[in-house]
């Protein structure tokens, strides 16, 4: 027995009080009979969970079960007719379950030392992480294949393209019919087609489109060398052949010029057009006469020219 035995002495109250002092820790939050009356519940103070608790009182709800609990984070005592905090044993500790009726406490359950009770101990701090254990043995390779992945989305085409069973090397492929799904072998290969960057032998005549016609407007004749190499022009007024648009070095061609049918007209030339000796030729003045103007583009700013006159 740890407590002192009370024996006959001149002052036995000293031994009794010393024993009470040893047990004083257990009285924190206990019922204080002096301050408890009717629906006022008095409790003792002390130290609990690192907090200095002052003695105090709670007001109970009549005709109900009152759940008296301590909030772990603050040490504050509270009473409620709802069991929410009573059931939350992580954030609260149980103290008393008090039944009231007719303005007084009719039943007392002391839960301070029971499960989740105020005196049953608080959860200590989490200890340090222990050392890492040894690596486990490598598992055996799985012999079960994984699941098949989902099917891919449908393509945007409308069907397979079918070609011949065989073909000559280098031949071109052509559509056979109008379905867009059948191919056939062309009669020519890529090497047989005209290509711009190769020296080639032409076995047939090569012709451009019909010459474009030029027209004078308010004394000026415009010419676009992108529209062709060769041109025609019938004189309708005195005019000047303007500098061409889109001149490219190496282009050559001619303009067949027909004189006016009743009154001869003149043709001057923009400085773009250069003639032998710098002498600008004049058109044949006979009505209906035909002259041929030839040119070779040297650069984007000039062309070498000549006028073949009165072609008959």
Please provide a written account of the structure.
This protein is mainly beta. Among the domains are: 87 residues, Sandwich (Triple-stranded beta-helix), CATH 2.60.520.10; 97 residues, Jelly Rolls (Sandwich). It contains two helices and 20 strands. The strands form six sheets. A six-stranded mixed beta sheet has the order 11-14-16-19-20-18, with no helix packed on it. A hairpin with a 5-residue loop joins strand 5 and strand 6. The longest helix is centred in the first third of the chain and has 11 residues. It is rod-shaped, with a radius of gyration of 58 Å. The protein starts with 11 loop residues before the first helix and ends with a strand.
User: Which segments are poorly predicted (pLDDT under 50) over 5 or more consecutive residues?
Assistant: none
Rg (C-alpha, Å):
58 Å
Beta-strand percentage range: 25-35%
- Tell the overall outline: rod-shaped
CATH domain class name of the domain at 212-308: Mainly Beta
**What fold name goes in the CATH topology slot of the domain at 212-308?**
Jelly Rolls
Order of helices and strands: HEEEEEEHEEEEEEEEEEEEEE
The CATH architecture of the domain at 212-308: Sandwich
What is the residue-averaged pLDDT?
Answer: 87
Q: Termini distance?
A: 152 Å
